[in-house]
Amino acid sequence: MKFKILLALIFVNLMQAQKFYFPKTAVTDSLILEKQMPGLAQQVIPQLQSEKNKPENRVDLLDNLFRLQMVAQDYKNSLASLSENRNLFADHHMGDYRYIGFELYSMAKLAQKESNISFPNAIEKVFNQKYESLPKKLIPRLPLAVDGNVRESRKQMKEILDKQKNKDSIDYKTALSLCKSYLSYKTYSSIKPQVVQLLASKDKEKFIIETKDLKIKNGNTLTITIVRKKGNTSPLPVILTNNIYAGLFDEFFGKRAATYNYVGAVVNTRGKRNSNNVNDPFEHESEDIYEVIDWISKQPWCNGKVGMIGGSYLGFSQWAAVKKLHPALKTIVPQVAVGIGIDYPAQNNIFMSYMLQWIQYVTNNKLTDEVDFGNFAKWNLINTEWYKSGKSFRALDTISGKTSKIFQRWLDHPAYDEYWQKMVPYKEDFSKINIPILTTTGYYDDDQIGALYYFKQHHQYNKNAEHYLIIGPYNHGGAQSFGFTYVNGSPIDPVARISIDDLAFSWFDYILKGDKKPEILKDRINFQVMNTNTWKHVADLDKMHTSTVKFYLQDKKNTASVFNKPETQSFTKQIVDFKNRDQKDTYYKVSKKDSIKTTTSIIFESEVLDKDMIISGNLSGFFNVSINKKDFDTDTYLYQIQPDGKSSLLSTHIVRASYAKNNEVRQLLEPNKMEQIPINNSYVMSRKIEKGSKLLLLVGVNKNPNWQINYGTGKDVSDETIKDSGEPLEVKWYNDSYVEIPVYKD
Fold this sequence. Notes:
Blueprint (H helix, E strand, L loop, with lengths): L1 H15 L2 E3 L3 H4 L1 H20 L8 H14 L3 H15 L10 H16 L3 H15 L8 H4 L4 H14 L5 E3 H35 E9 L5 E9 L6 E8 L4 H12 L3 E6 L16 H13 L4 E10 L1 H9 L7 E7 L10 E2 L2 E2 L2 H10 L6 H4 L2 H14 L6 H5 L4 H7 L6 H4 L15 E8 L3 H14 L5 E9 L10 E2 L2 E2 L8 H13 L12 E5 L4 E5 L8 E6 L18 E6 L10 E3 L5 E3 L3 E5 L7 E5 L2 E8 L5 E9 L5 E10 L18 E4 L6 E5 L4 E8 L27 E6 L3 E6 L3
Parallel strand pairs: 5-6, 5-7, 7-8, 8-11, 11-12, 12-15
Antiparallel strand pairs: 1-2, 3-4, 4-6, 9-10, 13-14, 15-16, 17-30, 18-29, 19-20, 21-28, 22-27, 23-26, 23-29, 23-30, 24-25, 24-28
Helix pairs in contact: 3-4, 3-10, 4-5, 4-10, 5-6, 6-7, 6-10, 7-10, 9-10, 12-13
């Protein structure tokens, strides 16, 4: 018996370490490489489809499969796999533009063989066929969809091959990476120049596109792109987007508006494209956009009405625009809007490492530095190096090799002070915003907190605000485009798989053209309850739930239920050593299938739920704590452990304790005294939790390379170093602390 087990273990190890024949001559000889790649892909395909390597969902499996089939020159099956991938990626043909460059290449290869024509002729033939068959609303996405980076894919391929020198075999992961980078290089180097020309020719037939430098009254020069559909001779409402991400997105936003029968106008921020002004992100939008709208409203192709749209930074821009409202601006559609100073570059007053990556993304050149921004290995290394070094957070830009005045300026404002307040409406400013607004965000949107901040402030200061909210199971990209079928690895309900584009332009039709209001907007707040396949509609955010349940910080071993208030006060002690930068991650095994990272957290687990529960809204409550320092950053996670043992993240909350009561004024804690820290600005979620599930609550201390480290001295956290760490942080989490969970009942 033992011998059989040993044989089985040896077999498993051999399977895990399985390598494929790949001659070392292929590394240095391109002709041999060309001959070897189809055979290598054929060997990798069965391994991809094996249980050991199979991705969580079929979308990801097909993503790799169609590429391998292309490398194997099995173009017919590759097209079938790609088609299935798209159908699973998004309903209603919303993702039919996806990977269209690879599709054109495969179609051309088949056409070349079947019709006995040259490859360029085959590309032209299949391009025309595909262009005519696509839904018209997808046409603006084509230039983005075929913008493969030939240089970068060639570089990646070379790096992989260099590591294969003097080797006659290749492991599974390396082989898969090689096939993918080889395919990208081969595809886009073959088709991109010709397809770009073909697209430009089609654009000339459909659109009038003008790009000009606009000198506005404040003396600054901005580049603006105007797109009109040919045949539209009468003045139309203009849909304006303020875009810091200068490049292909400019024409995309413009052509999208024109496709929906508007004039599209896209203005780049100061310092982008042809503007020689200083690029200071976020600082001048309010002033500049007013002047841009003034110019647009006076053009012969504008009927005097302007609307705005865009997501993330582009969503922020619309809130900047309404700080000084131009009479021609009739509506805005801010999507996943950055809450400047609220959730970015600091979330609840804690600065994030990502801010430097983003700053360089938009300031390295006049367009965007896609290669640097997408080099996640580089940025992970920079953030880890900073973390390991123990240097101040201010040193992060120096560690990156490129100092940044913007980065340093932002760090000078850890409170939500006048610097941030002047960029967007502040308090009473919201009372003057009297135009209709449609906000979209998602439960998995990185900027949900910002988007909801504007929504809440507008309704707080303007009781008659005509401001609607759509929120559902969307991430940052989905809530400004369309509902992807899979989010965070799990499928979303069919009713949530809507086109945010269609919704936004139906809204514009309603406000700017007098059409009917979009049907989904039945009340101010329109939210999708996950796992119920229904939308709910309420007048107030607080009505997303009908009651609450308090989850107390007590060990379930010592209580019948974590939902009951403890009879006697006690605490759980947590110790965090800020000097320790080699701490190994720890995990809590929730089932045979899943575990959750708990390195700087303590765990509180509920009993098994004996009935379904709909959690709907955002977490609130209080932490009663005592610490031996003047400050710390809390980190909170609420998970569902499903009956099948799989975990799902429901909500998170992070806050600097000294700003928890007032984000404008720092109030340091008194060491060794019990303090109450309110829980505000957590992530909203609406989801049915099935009977048989458990809730897992993690509370702890923020200490990782992705955020500032608060050493608790009371000094400016950006200036603290590991030398300030002193004795380890001791936190007493008292058991009468609770996280209040919002619950919805029909």
